[in-house]
Design brief:
Helices cover about 40% and strands about 15% of the residues. It is an alpha/beta fold. It folds into two domains: about 80 residues, 3-Layer(aba) Sandwich (Rossmann fold), CATH 3.40.50.10860; about 120 residues, 3-Layer(aba) Sandwich (Rossmann fold), CATH 3.40.50.720. Helix 2 packs across helix 10. The protein binds guanine (GUN).
């Protein structure tokens, strides 16, 4: 039997509808969520991401600012801009698009963002809050994965979740969130011996390594939930995930397609974080 698709586009659309309704209710009280996206340089993929973020803000009725800075912007100038937005009451979320040009250091930039406006969830205090289970703004792709599971009626509680990948952006935080949802979590990486055998133990397999079509059907327990965070551009121009979808689809019980699985959730969760931050700033949660 073929796996059921986890439709990230449809789930994302229904979350955005909920956000739209809540934003309209806030507007009646004169409250409007605000997001600033800062882009340094002219990386082509980043330009597309930034445009999509601004478009999402517009569609939801948010206040949106996009600051495009030249590639040669100094660290000092960038930190000064962040300081300004930290103090701006119309802005509830600050996102500095990564990667930054080589001469800029990422860490001091992320550290400079006010924790309450850290809608990426990358600030060390946000990461610490996630780790100890305190209320935090959660990183967008990992929280998108958890939303996909919940809204598909899949509970991680008591399940064995295997995460392949240990990045700060996806692998580590998604592991922590699955643990918070009472899964037993195994984190694998490039030095894990016999990766297919470990993956095969998973009830929920999350793959975030950036290697096209790495995961084959003999890596998947029959009926398992397979969440593919990968987005790899093939030589023919097509997008492929980290999972060999055609090979795995008959074995898995549930699977996210690429595109249309995890991808659409990332900006949606960014919008959810901005709304959450706005409500907090107005004493509503
Ligand atoms: N570049 C690619 N993905 C992301 C993201 O989620 N946040 C930021 N800030 N930069 C990115």
């Amino acid at each position: 039997m073929s796996a059921q698709f986890i439709d990230g586009k449809a789930i994302s659309a229904s979350i955005r509808q909920e956000i739209r309704e809540e934003t309209a209710r806030l507007a009646e009280r004169g409250i409007r969520p605000g997001l600033v996206v800062i882009l340094v340089g002219d990386d082509a993929a980043s330009q597309v991401y930034v445009r999509n973020k601004a478009k999402a803000c517009e569609e939801l009725g948010y206040h949106s600012e996009v600051v495009r800075l030249p590639a040669e912007t100094s660290q000092h100038e960038l930190l000064g801009l962040i300081e300004r937005y930290n103090a701006d009451p119309a802005i509830h979320g600050i996102l500095v698009q990564l990667p930054l040009p080589k001469h800029l250091e990422e860490k001091p930039v992320i550290d400079a963002i006010a924790v309450e406006k850290d809608v990426d969830g990358f600030h060390p205090v946000s990461v610490g809050n996630l780790m100890i289970g305190d209320d935090a703004l959660l990183p967008c792709t990992p929280s998108g994965v958890i939303e996909l599971l919940k809204r598909s009626g899949i509970s991680p509680a008591g399940k064995h979740a295997v995460v392949i990948g240990r990045s700060n952006i996806v692998g580590k935080p998604v592991s922590m969130l699955l643990l918070r949802e009472n899964a037993t979590v195994t984190i694998c990486h490039s030095r894990t011996p016999d990766l297919p055998a470990v993956a095969r133990q998973a009830d929920i397999l999350v793959v975030a390594v950036g290697v096209a079509k790495l995961v084959k059907k003999d890596w998947v327990k029959p009926g398992a939930v397979v969440i593919d965070v990968g987005m790899n551009r093939l030589e023919n121009g097509k997008l492929a995930g980290d999972v060999d979808f055609d090979d795995v689809v008959e074995t898995a019980g549930w699977i996210t397609p690429v595109p249309g699985g995890v991808g659409p959730m990332t900006i949606t969760m960014l919008m959810a974080n901005t709304l959450k931050s706005c409500k907090r700033a107005n004493g509503m949660g």
